[in-house]
Amino acid sequence: MNIAVTNVFVIYESALQVFAGNPSQAELEPEYTRFMASLPTTWDEIVPLAGKVGNFVAVARRKGHTWYVGALNDWSPRDLEIDLNFLGAKPYRAEICSDGINADKAAIDYSLFGRTVNRNDKLRIHLAAGGGYVAKFIPSEQ
User: Fold this and answer.
1) Strand, helix or coil at 133?
2) What secondary structure does DSSP assign to 74-100, as a single string?
3) Side-chain half-sphere of 45: how many Cα atoms within 13 Å?
4) pTM metric for this prediction
5) How many domains does the chain have?
6) Which terminus of the chain has fewer CB atoms gathered within 10 Å of its CB, N or C?
7) What is the C-alpha separation between 79 and 72, in angstroms, rounded?
8) Model confidence over 63-94: pLDDT tens digits?
9) Which residues 6+ apart lie within 8 Å of 88 measured at CB?
10) Which pLDDT does position 10 carry in this prediction?
11) 3-state secondary structure of 68
């Protein structure tokens, strides 16, 4: 699976998302597939976070009380620092899918992990060449 495939579901506006590929690929990565399937196709709010036309983009989108952050990169590796001040006052559980350590060599290399964040935190995101990032922020009370 390619992380850049998943983050486009958050970056691009479309009520009909299509994941192209062989269904047997999804069976090999059940955690990734569950994460991808949890992404909504419509949004209640959109917040631009960072970007430069032709180079990279990072946006936050909200559906209900849950926030999503997606980032998409060109062919130059880069590091971003994203302010989470768009989140509500309570802590959030973050489910994060980011480029893996070898993503610049193998697009299928990703890292899926969780952590707790709040509106005062900053995300430090490393984007591999041609890479991406996607995170889901669920309010702790849910």
Assistant:
1) strand
2) -SS-EEEEEE-TTS-SS-EEEEEEEE-
3) 11
4) 0.87
5) 1
6) C
7) 12
8) 999 999 999 999 999 999 999 999 999 999 99
9) 65, 119, 139
10) 83
11) strand
